[in-house]
Design goal:
By secondary structure, the protein is an alpha/beta fold. The chain folds into 2 domains: 3-225, inorganic pyrophosphatase (n-terminal core); 236-348, Diaminopimelate Epimerase, Chain A, domain 1, CATH 3.10.310. The chain is built from 14 helices and 11 strands. The chain has helices spanning 3-14, 30-47, 59-62, 66-71, 122-125, 135-143, 153-162, 170-179, 184-200, 205-214, 227-242, 267-277, 307-314, 337-348; strands spanning 22-27, 53-57, 76-80, 99-104, 117-121, 248-250, 255-260, 282-287, 293-299, 320-323, 327-333. It has a 6-stranded mixed beta sheet, with helices on both faces. Strands 2-1-3-4-5 form a 5-stranded parallel beta sheet. The termini are far apart. It binds manganese (II) ion. Residues 31, 81, 105, 134-135, 163 line the site of manganese (II) ion. Manganese (II) ion binds at residues 31, 81, 105, 134-135, 163.
């Protein structure tokens, strides 16, 4: 189905939305922030009304919002950059009391389309690998049929950079430099700012979102109260990037297996940074934050091995994992590290 058809479906979804309580849930990372804000701005420009509730979430927080949103009579729920179709049947509790719009670019786990739910994945609209069609750009393309969102392209670019989609959207970036008087360096620094808050002070992420919503342009964000977090993120990340020389390397299968014990949740930042240099190697980063579970990040930018399938299989029966072909995540109980590693080696053919 084409982009135009989904643009029409979105238009139908927006009809009468100004009379209904509306919530926007978005992922807590740069692409989640970008797609959340583009949704906010589109609602405001198209319907004249801001969402009544907006929140950055991780997957384990989504279902717990259901009772409150139902009780407070929310009738429209919009979820962006969240592969909620990987969460099982419970996610359908939303459509018992509200119309649901899901816009996402992760792998399709289950088609949630129904009378009440409009379900849009990047792969329904484009042949581009969905990991490189970030939710920020997808929201921008879907909503732009109803209003001009050009003044917010710089925010879309942060989402694209966060998901490492720059190569795919170079022309869009060129346009953005002109239209929003910005440049690549500035946009990269903003993306780093978002990564920093996500990592150092995740509980304040919604405050950062408000700063972005209120900013008239990219330049204003340089005054963000969160700039101090960038330094903290970089110090911690640099420490672990140096420690990469201690990662285990399996030459035959081109695997780096790297265990980190950082102060903050820096695994995505570290694995993204490493994967720019080691783009044709498999990188598995295991992060130990001293909790009951270890968190996982897998990267491989040449698409030769599917990281989502690698983590799905390697955590099967012991934890959870999934995501994109070049970038996936997951978690396992700490006592399952050994079987997890064995699984990775077996799947990749070392054993
Ligand atoms: Mn994304």
């Amino acid at each position: 189905m084409s982009l135009e058809k989904y643009q029409k479906k979105v238009k139908n979804f927006f009809e009468n939305i100004q009379k209904q309580k509306t919530a926007v849930l978005h992922h807590r990372d740069p692409d989640g922030l970008g797609s959340g804000i583009i949704t906010f701005k589109a609602l405001e420009k198209i319907t004249g009304k801001k969402p009544d509730f907006m929140q950055a979430v991780e997957y384990d927080e989504i279902l717990s919002l259901i009772p409150e949103l139902e009780k407070k009579n929310f009738k429209k729920i919009i979820m962006v950059d969240l592969s909620v179709d990987s969460m099982g049947e419970k996610i359908k509790q939303f459509e018992k009391f509200a119309d649901v719009l899901i816009i996402d670019h992760h792998k399709v786990y289950q088609n949630l389309e129904s009378d009440k739910t409009l379900f849009i994945k990047a792969s329904f609209i484009s042949d581009i690998d969905p990991s490189k069609y970030p939710a920020s750009k997808l929201c921008f393309d879907l909503f732009s049929a109803q209003t001009s969102l050009e003044e917010f392209q710089w925010i879309v670019c942060c989402g694209i950079l966060g998901d490492m989609g720059f190569e795919q959207w170079k022309d869009f970036f060129e346009q953005t430099y002109e239209k929003n008087s910005t440049n690549l360096k500035e946009l990269e620094q903003l993306t780093e700012l978002i990564n920093a808050v996500e990592t150092v002070e995740p509980e304040k992420f919604d405050e950062l979102v408000i700063e972005f919503v209120n900013a008239k342009n990219s330049d204003e964000m340089k005054q963000s109260v969160f700039q101090k977090d960038v330094k903290k993120l970089k110090e911690e990340a640099d420490k672990w990037l140096k420690d990469f020389e201690n990662a285990e390397f399996y030459e035959k299968i081109g695997l780096y297996f790297f265990i980190i014990k950082p102060k903050y949740d820096i695994k995505s930042f570290v694995s993204n940074t490493l994967s720019q240099k080691y783009y044709d190697k498999t990188l598995v980063v295991v992060q130990d934050l001293g909790k009951t579970h270890l968190t996982l990040s897998a990267r491989r930018q040449d698409f030769k091995i599917k990281m989502n399938e690698l983590l799905e299989k390697a955590t099967d029966g012991i934890g959870s994992g999934g995501g994109h072909v070049p970038a996936a995540g997951g978690r396992i109980p700490r006592e399952k590290l050994k079987p997890f590693k064995e699984n990775v080696l077996t799947i990749l053919g070392e054993k």
